[in-house]
Amino acid sequence: VQLVESGGGLVQPGGSLRLSCTASGFTFRRAAMIWYRQAPEKARELVASISGPGTSIHYADSVKGRFTISRDDDKNTVYLQMTSLKFEDAAVYYCSAWLDSGNEYWGQGTQVTVSS
């Protein structure tokens, strides 16, 4: 199982970024995909999740209305479109995959920096 995040970077407040997480080594369409983030000295936070069929989507209250999670099962990729970014959105963003087996796998993370 491999998960590779990309798309992080430096953005000004109010800006946008789209994160991608490309997966391999498992049946992607059956896996629930989750985006987490962790800022320095803060607990890991679940940002957004999307079920295997993509019919169930959830967001943390802190990102509702600003972030959108989506998936492309043909590309084995899950996305996190982030808009209206705030200073407090700065963190390392990780994607994870929950498989039918009950196991969860993680990517290496991608850094999002929000700075003026």
Q: What structural class do helix, strand and pairing data support?
A: mainly beta
Q: How many helical stretches?
A: 0
Rounded to the nearest angstrom, the radius of gyration is: 13 Å
Range of strand content: over 45%
Secondary-structure element pattern, one letter each = EEEEEEEEEEE
Question: What average pLDDT do the residues reach?
Answer: 96
Distance between the termini: 37 Å
| Unreliable residue runs | none
Tell me roughly what share of residues is in helical segments.
Answer: under 10%
Shape: globular
Your description of this structure?
The strands form two sheets. Strands 2, 4, 5, 6, 9, 10 and 11 form a seven-stranded mixed sheet that branches. A four-stranded antiparallel sheet has the order 1-3-8-7, with no helix packed on it. It is globular and about 40 Å long. It has no helices and eleven strands. It has strands at 2-6, 9-11, 17-24, 32-38, 45-50, 57-59, 67-72, 77-82, 91-98, 104-106, 110-114. It is an all-beta fold and 116 residues long. Strand 5 and strand 6 (57-59) form a beta hairpin.
Question: Can you lay out the helices and strands and say which pair or pack?
Answer:
Elements: E1 2-6, E2 9-11, E3 17-24, E4 32-38, E5 45-50, E6 57-59, E7 67-72, E8 77-82, E9 91-98, E10 104-106, E11 110-114
Parallel strand pairs: 2-11
Antiparallel strand pairs: 1-3, 3-8, 4-5, 4-9, 5-6, 7-8, 9-10, 9-11
